[in-house]
Amino acid sequence: MDKVEITNVIKKHEPLPWKVSTIRGENQLVCWLPIIDLSGKDHYLGLIKEGFWVADTCDQLIKLEKKSSFVPLLPMLEFQCKEFLTELKNSFKSCGLPITMVSYFPLLEGIICGLETMSNYWAELALKWIESCEELRMVQLIPFLKKLSLANNNQVSQQVRHKSQRILKKIQSATIDR
Predict the structure, then answer these.
(1) Strands 19-22 and 29-37: what pairing?
(2) 68 and 151 co-located in one domain
(3) Are 94 and 153 contained in the same domain?
């Protein structure tokens, strides 16, 4: 995710329907553009002018820049991958931005967050995304799939561990074949 590229695209497509909020922990007002509502409760993921992704909470924005801040991305995993990508494209289009902005959305971070929760629910959904979208079978996922496949019974089910092992083998064999 390149913040410079995002800000350049935003500048080219002004004026945009900006909102004003504060970022948690920074006590400063920022302009942000709501892009997609994952919750159905008007809690949007969006972009600030500086090119960062943010999540709208009840009172402030959370900047999605550190590993621990990606939890608001988890609800995306409750969608089917292709359905979500279509919705995301439509959201960019309705905001006045090109659908190519989809490539800047932190999909990989959301999937990794799902794998790292060590929750059967989120891990299973993340694995379904990886299985259903060929372009998501990336080398960057290998360490997270390994960790999940080696988790103990108290963390995730045998079914989730085995599924992560199968996907891991597919990614590794595809990497070797290149």
Answers:
(1) antiparallel
(2) no
(3) no
